[in-house]
Write a structure and sequence with these properties.
Number of strands: 0
Distance between the termini: 57 Å
Number of helices: 5
Largest sheet: none
Radius of gyration: 20 Å
Strand content: under 5%
Shape: elongated
Structural class: mainly alpha
Helix content: 55-70%
Length: 103
Amino acid sequence: MSFVLLLIEIYSKVSAFAPSRLQPGSNPHTPHRSVKQLRFSNWLGVRKMSCRIKRLLTFIHYPTTDISLKMGFHEATNMIRFFRRHTQLSPKELRQVCRQNDD
């Protein structure tokens, strides 16, 4: 079974092989719509997380390792990679830009 079909079964509560067999009380959406909603909610979660990290880096002058632990990352490198992937800046670069704007 492919990973996508497994996701469909988990999040839509409908077998990926028989989407028309809905049971009472189960998810009334099609598997495709359920996966789209899952992606959208994941995207919103990523946006909120990157905004929180930006705020902490900008206004609170804690070390990056402390911020990463506060945000639930096990290591600072994981948070740095996550942050760089979603903002195209490293935490150090963001702090430098903020300091330049304050001067």
